[in-house]
Design a protein that fits this description.
- The protein is α/β, with parallel strands linked by helices.
- Helices cover 48% and strands 12% of the residues.
- The protein folds into two domains: 177 residues, P-loop containing nucleotide triphosphate hydrolases (Rossmann fold); 54 residues.
- Strands 2-1-4-5-6-3-7 form a seven-stranded mixed beta sheet.
- Helix 6 links the parallel strand 5 and strand 6.
- The longest helix is centred in the first third of the chain and has 18 residues.
- It is elongated.
Length: 290
């Protein structure tokens, strides 16, 4: 086949591939839902709509009223295109950190005339933040960028990319994006990593400052602590009332106390697991999506 025949053939093949290729615009249609999950696979990454978010209503979150008030107010200002801070929700596991982020989104999204986006990025995809921010920046929509259980190990350097994105980079964070993260660690980095930097650095204080400064990029630090027994009972009773699970109050508290002891913790997560046990025993289905 000579060149004059080959060029038209290749052009037809290229046109055919263009017709069957996925529409990139369709993959980033931010009107498809109010919540999305970022998938970093492929050349550009894509956003998957989440029609029903797995979340707890704000009224069922017990023992974190102060944290809820602060995050709700920050989120409301952001949705109204007023200055707002990035937020780090840190503390004991199972105490409602990620639940509060999702509940705050639902609360403010319902109030907002233009809607508020919630976009989840997985911890291992932090290095693809610039590509995701380019999509959100061009959308013109207000978006909460959410990373659950954010932390870094000693061999991970992607925290430097996150620092540049949050503040300090040339482009920085778009005005229409705010970053909310949850973590069990206040400083996001393991203590042994910080101590190792201190012991090997020429100037130990500067090395530690480099590590700790990541969490300084978050204007809001909201601490979540272990739940006392009365608050734990309030969580269980609120769930039972919400889902219509009828049980003698004394028996419910006795079983809830035993459940917490066997798991070595009192938290919102443990309360929810106990309520699922009660609902299953009573033969009543329950669901937390919306």
């Amino acid at each position: 086949m000579n060149e004059s025949e080959l060029v038209p053939l290749l052009s037809r093949i290229a046109d055919a591939l263009d017709r069957i290729a996925p529409d990139k615009a369709a993959k980033t249609d931010l009107s498809a839902a109010s919540a999305f999950v970022w998938h970093a696979d492929g050349e550009d990454g894509w956003l998957e709509p989440v029609p029903a978010v797995n979340r707890v209503p704000l009224t069922l979150l017990q023992g974190i009223d102060r944290q809820a008030d602060i995050l709700i107010e920050n989120t409301r200002r952001f949705a109204n295109r007023l200055p707002a801070n990035n937020a780090l929700l840190w503390g004991a596991r199972g105490t409602g950190k990620s639940s509060l982020v999702k509940a705050a989104h639902a609360e403010i999204d319902a109030e907002s005339a233009n809607g508020l986006l919630l976009v989840e990025i997985h911890r291992e995809d932090i290095h693809t933040l610039p590509a995701l921010l380019a999509i959100l920046r061009d959308s013109g929509r207000q978006a909460i960028l959410f990373c659950d259980d954010l932390s870094f190990d000693s061999s991970d350097t992607s925290y430097k990319s996150l620092k540049a994105v949050l503040e300090g980079g040339i482009e920085g964070r778009p005005d229409n994006v705010v970053f909310y993260a949850t973590s069990n660690r206040r400083h996001l980095l393991p203590r042994d990593m910080i101590e190792n930097e201190r012991s090997t650095a020429i100037n130990p204080s500067e090395a530690v400052e480099e590590k700790v400064s990541l969490s300084d990029r978050f204007g809001l630090w909201l601490g979540f602590h272990n739940t006392d027994q009365d608050t734990f009972f309030a969580m269980v009773e609120a769930y039972c009332e919400h889902f219509g699970l009828e049980m003698d109050s004394d028996q419910l508290r006795a079983e809830a106390k035993e459940w917490a002891v066997t798991r070595g913790a009192r938290s919102g997560r443990v309360a929810w697991q106990f309520v699922q046990e009660i609902a299953g025993r009573l033969g009543k289905p329950i669901e937390l999506k919306g």
